[in-house]
């Protein structure tokens, strides 16, 4: 139930964000006197609607976004009624059109920044002083689940080998059978590579003091680490969970209302850099997505779709890390805000780029004494627009497919 709740929360948050994006377009357009005839949440058949003034508001059957209809977005639009010619969007000054078209992204940025500021005060922002990667500090569980199932301990489940051997919560595992482990993922891999059911020598540190125990590893069924959708195989298990933070080191740092402002600015800066780097890597990650779809290991650095984000939200809530839902909401809003400003049609950034191109061209032609060439013919740009839609649709389908058949998972059992 927690997993399903997390999925629903992220999906609903995305829907609300997109609806507010369209509301940003609508409200700024109305403020400048442009005519907005429709504002709907969702797509497909209309479930419910009402009209107030000249605008119809409503809800569609497919909750995958929303839209608002501004009359006369381009000179080629034929939706301008007699008497409304002066209210056509394309006739307004370029700065007003820029504000209207960028209002959607500004809304996403505002949502992200407000969420960061609130998180800084009430949830805390990630501690920048954490070691990376985290050492293999562990939590000792009471039992091992021999089948590949996520559940609580039940009578008859074997006692955790780590507990039997005397390991404790917050112990840092440094080596298994003489093989050094740098982090929790390396610990899991090293233990699973050992013969199931065999004893292992575990070196650890506790309160800065080194120690060593001998643990009889349990034989359990788990899906391969490099194939989360593969058939379970028999591997060894130590009976620990992680990764855990080093003792006394907080995962998040909280701030007061004033101190939260520079903390928000710093986090926003890091988010902007991360988003820029993620956008640059997208072309290089397409082969990795295809590998994930065709049965290979899923690269955790590959893009995710709404499906993947929702699954991560469910996984986070299922594991008690509800803070990750907030960070997902922030990251998604910031990424969508930046993506929508890319100078490509049919994105908002494409319309903004054309508006300023027209303005710059008119200025240049006036300076050289040539006749103003007028507005850009959007119809001539349709092949490019369709190409962008086709490529974007194919990429979205590839990403969503990878998130279904080979999803990214953040928690290793």
From TrEMBL:
Gene3D superfamilies in the cross-refs: 2.30.42.10
Keywords: Hydrolase, Membrane, Metalloprotease, Protease, Transmembrane, Transmembrane helix, Zinc
Domain of life: Bacteria
Biological process according to GO: proteolysis
UniProt-annotated location(s): Membrane
Entry keyword Amino-acid biosynthesis: no
InterPro entries, per the entry: PDZ_6 (IPR041489), PDZ_sf (IPR036034), Pept_M50_Zn (IPR004387), Peptidase_M50 (IPR008915)
Cofactors required: Zn(2+)
Segments forming domain PDZ: 157-206
CDD domains: S2P-M50_PDZ_RseP-like
Stretches that traverse the bilayer: 99-120, 384-405
GO molecular function, one term: peptidase activity
Domain Peptidase M50 as annotated: residue spans: 10-361
Bilayer topology: Multi-pass membrane protein
Protein family (similarity comment): Belongs to the peptidase M50B family.
Name of the protein this chain belongs to: Site-2 protease family protein
